[in-house]
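Hi, here's the filled form for the chain we discussed.

Project: internal
Contact: R.S.
Residues: 266
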Amino acid sequence: MAIGGGRTSGPAHREDLTVHPACRNCLDVNAADKVIVSCALTGAVTTKKHCPAIPYTPVEIAEEARRAYEAGAAIVHIHARNDDGSPTWSKDTFARIMAETKQRCPVLINWSTGGAGPMTERVHHLALRPHIAALNMGSMNYAKWSEHKKQFAFNFVFANSFDDILGFARAMKEHGAKPEMECFDVGHTASHRVLVDLGLLEAPYHFSFIMGVLGGIPATARHLAFQAEQAPAGSRSSRCSGAGCAPASMPSRLPSGGGSTCGAVI
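And the returned structure, exactly as it came back:
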């Protein structure tokens, strides 16, 4: 699997990809490799307390989407927020984000569906027909531990039953959204076989390997390769180290991506 810092122009690939030398050296990536850059604009739990630049309102999020697109991102992964920064699954809020973003740039839009609360509250915004939608592929302990403070920065159970996974997958198929299967561990990746068997996925499959979250798979090159082995040949994949937790971003030989992802073909 090739991962690099290449640029794309909206939905189409640019042929003159720029690949960071560190990526080229340690992952055998060359300038001819096509890379899709996806940018998560807010993350799931980060607030302005953690980073003052985190966008909250539809206009702020759309402005960040424009800046990401102009920097080379083809996709923006969006978690909606209320004006005070708290998460929301309001269909109206997602509609405003979509409208504001489309006014600014033609970037592909990827809705989040993950979070606390019942699935029925996290599915209505798919009717807005985003290009892509995140499909969380399993349950886990989801935490970040502070060795300095000897306490959790956050700590909760991220519940995604198979019933919910199938429900989201059916809604995505109904509304024409490409499922981005978010896999925090190897079992999550292998679970795609159920969706294939039920006809809920269309090739090429798209995986997101989210690594470095405490409770999930560690963020190492060896674990990334093992994850990739679970996906069928020809699948697309993206890597998200630490789910936006900067200390868990890929080793220092790679350019730090924070919560952004780089897509490649396995």
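Let me know if anything looks off before we file it.
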